[in-house]
Specification:
This protein has 322 residues and is an alpha/beta fold. The protein has a single domain, classed as TIM Barrel (Alpha-Beta Barrel), CATH 3.20.20. It is 39% helix and 15% strand. It contains 11 helices and 11 strands. The strands form 2 sheets. Strands 1, 2, 3, 4, 7, 8, 9, 10 and 11 form a 9-stranded parallel beta sheet that branches. Helix 8 links the parallel strand 9 and strand 10. Helix 2 packs across helix 3 and helix 4 crosses helix 5. It is globular and about 70 Å long. The two termini are 38 Å apart.
Length: 322
């Protein structure tokens, strides 16, 4: 084995073109998904631009701009009016629900754009939890049918794929069966397989209006201390019919992304969540770091850990940066 001075690893770091030539991990816009929040009225967020809510008209305009920049996939979250929420979250699956209306607007306009939808009930329930309640706790099995109805309604309105994020046991199988029975056997399921009960969801919950009215979600989302459990969740989801796995949040769980990548051959997504986005935005606004450099480094780390797909609020900006 050659040693210094014959071996000089700095030779390939000397210039930008040399570094680019041998770069091991590359950011490809086609690997990124942009989350968007659709609501009855637009609500801007100056500090966190990607966390604002968009009316249907503004959503169409935003999607048109993003598609023109090269964004190829979006993940839709629905935010109904407060008075439309109920204990079951029925607004999640009704024909004229906010997501269903958005899909019917977007699908014929942008056939080349991949439309994914978040399948959960927390935005639609009066109590803010991800399923139906029984004696103050989320009832797992009672919730499965509601999630399946939601997924079917999304696909029938124009969704290309559904992404269940509730973390109920058995929900992937219930959704797969419902989609197949409804005549949609080719609709893929991107499962939030390892979704942790994380402190990094704060800005999202404000944007989506989905903070629980009482308690927390640790009874169904995963303990951040566990990685073997994440592998079991992924294994079960694949057995139930998941087409893509996901780890969420991404940056605190790079080791989990790597573990899932090494164990399974299925496509793997990671969610670069709102708190990760907000921390960099806040630090950049305070002059502590360069946002673009920090964002690109963070996104590269997620891809390097093994994620094939990255869901990120920087996707629109990434389209300009790349």
């Amino acid at each position: 084995m050659s040693t210094f001075p014959a071996t000089r690893l700095r030779r390939l770091r000397r210039t930008g073109p040399l570094r680019s030539l041998v770069r091991e991990t590359r950011l490809d816009l086609e690997s990124f998904v942009l989350p968007l929040f659709v609501a009855p009225e637009t609500v801007c967020n100056e500090a966190l631009p990607a966390m604002g809510r968009l009316s249907l008209d503004d959503l169409v305009r935003e999607v048109e701009e993003c598609a023109g920049l090269g964004v190829s996939a979006i993940l839709l979250f629905g935010v109904p009016d407060e008075q439309d929420k109920d204990d079951e979250g029925s607004g999640a699956w009704i024909e004229d629900g906010i997501v269903q209306r958005a899909l019917r607007e977007l699908s014929p306009r942008y056939p080349e754009l991949l439309l994914l939808t978040d399948v959960c009930l927390c935005e639609y329930t009066a109590h803010g939890h991800c399923g139906a309640l029984h004696d103050g706790e989320v009832a797992n099995d009672e919730t499965l049918d509601l999630l399946a109805r939601t997924a079917v309604s999304h696909v029938e309105a124009g969704a290309d794929a559904v992404a269940p994020s509730d973390m109920m046991d058995g929900r992937v199988g219930a959704i797969r069966t419902a989609l197949d029975d409804a005549g949609h056997p080719v609709a893929p399921i991107l499962a939030y397989s390892a979704k942790y009960a994380s402190a990094f969801y704060g800005p999202f919950r404000e944007a989506a209006g989905s903070a629980p009215a009482f308690g927390d979600r640790r009874g169904y989302q995963m303990d951040p201390a566990n990685v073997r459990e994440a592998l079991r969740e992924c294994e079960l989801d694949l057995a139930e019919g998941a087409d893509v796995l996901m780890v969420k949040p991404a940056l605190p769980n790079l080791d989990v992304i790597r573990a899932v990548r090494e164990r399974f051959d299925a496509p793997l997504a990671a969610y670069n969540v709102s708190g990760e986005y907000a921390m960099v935005k806040a630090a950049a606004a305070a002059g502590f770091l360069d946002e673009r450099a920090a964002a690109l480094e963070s996104l590269t780390a997620i891809r390097r850990a093994g994620a094939d797909v990255v869901i990120s609020y920087w996707t629109k900006e990434l389209a300009r940066w790349l």
